[in-house]
Fold this sequence. Notes:
This protein is 11% helix and 57% strand.
Amino acid sequence: xxxxxxxxxxxxxLGAGLLPLSVAAAAPPVATAERVSPGPAVVADSGRRVRxxxxxxxxxxxxxxxxAVQFExxxxxxxxxxxxxxxxxxxxxxAALALDRLEWACERLxxxxxxxxxxxxxxxxRPAGVxxxxxxxxxxxxxxxxxxxxxxxxxDPDSPWRIAAQRIPLVWLEDFVTSLWAGGRVGEGTVGGRxxxxxxxxxxxxxxxxxxxxxGFDTPDGLVAGAGLAMPLRVRxxxxxxxxxxxxxxxxxxxxxxTAGELLVTPIYLAVPAAGLEVAVDAESQPGGRWRLTRWLxxxxxxxxxxxxxxxxxxxxxxxxSARATxxxxxxxxxxxxxxxxxxxxxxxxRLAGRGGGAVAFDxxxxxxxxxxxxxxxxxDPQGRFxxxxxxxxxxxxxxxxxxxxxxxxxxxxxxxxxxxxGAFAFRSESGVLALREPLRVGTLGGHLRLDRLTWRPPxxxxxxxxxxxxxxxxxxxxxxxxxxxxxxxxGTLEGTLPNALYQNNRVTFEGGLAMxxxxxxxxxxxxxxxxxxxxxxxxxxxxxxxxxxxxxxxRAFGFGEITGRLDGRIRDLRLVDWTPVAFDARLLTDRxxxxxxxxxxxxxxxxxxxxxxxLIAGLQARLLRAFDDFxxxxxxxxxxxxxxxxxxxxxxxxxxxxxxxxxxGLPRIEVVGFRREVDWxxxxxxxxxxxxxxxxxIE
Length: 700
């Protein structure tokens, strides 16, 4: 098998240039010793053998060194003529090709006018098929074959070289490919088709109509790769050597249609659809190995049509890009192209619908401009985190351009099952920031959500994406909220303000805290932070403080017996992972300054008693407990520090070997003391759930 790339074409061109010289060398000898010199040296041996040595050949499209041509004429009516050509090195600049140790032996030279010869070819000492040459004053023709691979070369005096190839391995073109794409590595696959290469002159122009089959390539970092790609490809390549006033310049035009295979341009992975897709590139080389794509086209008719320009580094990295695209079916676009983009962000099963389009521009600092147009679009997260229906409108943003207004609305939306009525964002882009032109107020949960401000600034250089907002909750129905979130059946309304929320580095921090009116009291959330809000295993951290919470509606909502009075407390260092508590320091105390009724029901006494693993003290018997519906109390207090799935329990104060949870008042007097200091958290949660469902708790 022929391992050096395109060795056959190099020897073919070399043979075409040397064969006329070998015929002329059949004249009487002019030297007596074989040598290599700047001009041909001809040596005759017994009048039948002629050897020609040439130090160097430079014919524009062909360069060769250490060339030796040997012609041997047969005796009259006996031995046939033979021809042998050896070359230490052959170079084809247009193909970035260098070949070593070429040997061609034609044992039966059929004629001199025209010169017709066929013989075996060797490269680097190994067999490389059969080469046939047909040269006359009017044309030069060469044919090479090795198994299913073949090459034919034809040259008329005033025309370029015409080459027809069949199943040529892509690896033979590796030097040519890497001269165009320094970071690319070619692999399996074959190339066939027709090429036209000029026979001389400073500039090199290649016109080719090729067929690529089973093509594979990648980059050292694996971020760009292809496998099994098939396509007809039209190539127009022109290279002009450097001069004293201008650098070397290469122009390239590619036009083709992908019909099979897989393509990865991280993070986008594509399995080429059965219907195929159209691709085109017009490119010019630039100093430093960069390429300027003056035009590129990607046309996947059922999913997306995109076109634009770009600048690429020598290793294939995108230095600048502008693109305008339209999609007739966002569902098809999502299925075919967006898995690698959405899955790492936690939206691997997101469903899209509708149609849209837009434009983007990137430079060395990141996104520089963006336009989005949406028509009857929608997005549904099967995990129930959010949904959008009937999205219409446009979005305009520019980092450096003039101010621009846009509007984007929806017919219906939901966030974690909470419905949001129709609304629209009115945006303005100015000084690189996209911001609301006016507050947005939409109905939800029987009340309203008010978005007072929203600003969006995309990443720029080392500065990450930044989103800020201020919002308020107006009279949201707690019963509806509880039902949608699977909470106990709370009553009342939820109100509050969030002066400033900041999203940056996949983390949301709430500056200023969140204040809510809840159960007749106040709840304040400080140091609230949310990581990966829509990603895998979202994490939340916060500190909570309760003040004057009305215990009657609270305990009714949880079904935890009934307690009247007011509750104060705090939960410090709260941390949830995937919305499950993993750590906190909680302490809840009734307000001793409350001057209203402070009563605790018999069921609440039982539930609290069993939660603490306690007994009832102060001489009260179990039968006496059942005789009363409720009891007076002075204070109630309980604490839990959760670490490593274990809750360290505390109460109002120490009481013997335990801790006092309920301090009684009046007659009949009741006190509850807990004796179990450490409680398994999952067990505690399960028993709390049993308590709210009306079952009796028992901690063993």
